[in-house]
Specification:
about 425 residues, alpha/beta, 10-stranded mixed sheet, 4-stranded mixed sheet
């Protein structure tokens, strides 16, 4: 399998957690390289359901090493809760987890600022999870952030925290918020530091040693391509680089040590939060929600749903250098007689083959569709590609052709054995 970067091809929630968990059986190390606890991966192991936010999905397999890289922003209190939740379910967490000393921290003032900024936007809100991720990355870019390496040095941490609380309390007061208690936050975070200190190290050195030893590494993406801070549907994006390049900067492993990029996409397209979504279709959304599908793992919000968008997928392949694709949730389309695929965006008299970067123009885009016959039979029992209905195979092959990458995996349900390898 070599070193693989796994990315979401659309707006996140593509079923990456399930694919990551499936691939983890073939690797030695799983790395999370960006995002924070605003992301979530849902993994099923038999009857057991796990929702992971900061810890890589590889933690469910005891012989794998999980790495939280320097590109991640960490809420230490939430991370400790996640650790305790896993241990309560008899999941081993010990030497199989390491955390970068360069990862930046999320604090209560980040969450308050996040909520205030979102509220102030009114109808122009982004749809943030209000977990403080954007403001934490803002401190990182402004070179005023506090990192994991600071947290595990109590005197240094307390001095830095006091200055940040003083600074942010002035801002919060101006916004009409109550001031935060330095003592309370210091106490909570130093308690978390005692739990997390054994995991904190130089993860770059660890990963370079692993590469030299030819150990196989999976870089698990959080969110999706069109939530990338540079290449997404700005400003309706997250605050990190969710495309393949982010795996390099967020882990310290250089590009020439990466062997392939696997893009994960649903058999239809979804997005959470605000922002343009050209193929959105309320009938598909109502159908999927009625089936109990398409609710966010982190927020519980109902996802917006639509037909498969090959225009955005082609651009995603371009941005990420996608070699292979995994298509999830094929079974969600089992009951639809005619299935549409968006192959172009119409703006006035022009037909666009890639999404426009201008938000107003993207909002005006009308999808150009082709139509394919549905298969009208269940796919969830299929365990090989040949067992899928012929029309389902035809649909998948069309999706791969339009995506410009090789079809490698097909998921027909949440369980590990509901994954078909081509």
């Amino acid at each position: 399998m070599a070193n693989t970067i796994l990315v979401g091809a659309h707006w996140g929630d593509e079923g990456k957690g399930k694919i990551i968990d499936f691939l983890t059986s073939s690797v030695d190390i799983v790395v999370r390289s960006q995002g924070g606890n605003n992301a979530g991966h849902t993994v099923y192991d038999g009857p057991n359901k796990y929702v992971l936010h900061l810890i890589p999905s590889g933690i469910l397999r005891p012989d794998k090493i999980c790495v939280i890289g320097n590109g991640v922003v960490i809420d230490p209190v939430s991370l400790v809760e996640e650790l305790r939740g896993l241990r309560a379910k008899k999941i081993k967490v010990g030497k199989n987890l390491i955390i970068s000393d360069c990862a930046h921290l999320v604090f209560p003032y980040h969450r308050l600022l996040d909520a205030q900024r979102e509220s102030a936007k009114g109808k122009q809100k982004i749809g943030t999870t209000k977990r403080g991720i954007g403001p934490a990355y803002g401190d990182k870019v402004a070179r005023t952030g506090i990192r994991m390496g600071d947290l595990v040095q109590p005197a240094l941490f307390s001095a830095k925290l006091k200055a940040k609380i003083r600074e942010n309390n002035r801002i919060l007061k101006a916004l009409g918020e109550k001031p935060l208690s330095f003592k309370k936050i210091e106490e909570d975070y130093l308690a978390a530091a005692k739990v997390l200190k054994p995991f904190v190290t130089n993860t770059v050195a660890f990963l370079h040693k692993a590469v030299a030893e030819k150990r196989e590494i999976l870089f698990e993406g959080a969110q999706g391509t069109f939530l990338d801070i540079d290449h997404g549907t700005y400003p309706y994006v997250t605050s990190s680089n969710t495309t393949a390049g982010g795996a390099c900067t967020g882990s310290g492993v250089p590009p020439h040590r990466m062997d392939r990029v696997l893009g994960v996409m649903k058999a239809y397209t979804t997005r959470v939060g605000e922002g343009p979504f050209p193929t959105e279709n309320s009938e598909i959304g109502d159908m999927l929600h009625a089936m109990g599908r398409e609710f966010g793992a982190t927020t519980g919000r109902a996802r917006r749903c639509g037909w498969f968008d090959a225009v955005s997928t082609r651009y995603s392949t371009m941005l990420n250098g996608t070699d292979e694709i995994a298509v999830t949730n094929l079974d969600g389309l089992d009951s639809i007689p005619k299935i549409k695929i968006c192959v172009g965006y119409k703006v006035g008299r022009k037909t666009l083959e890639v999404p426009p970067s201008d938000l107003l123009q993207l909002q005006q885009c009308k999808p150009v569709y082709i139509e394919m016959d549905g298969w009208l039979s269940p796919t969830d029992k299929a365990r090989s590609y040949e067992e899928l209905p012929a029309k389902a195979r035809k649909y998948l092959e069309k999706v791969a052709e339009l995506a410009g990458a090789k079809l490698r995996l097909v998921s027909v349900g949440p369980a590990r054995d509901q994954t078909i390898v081509l």
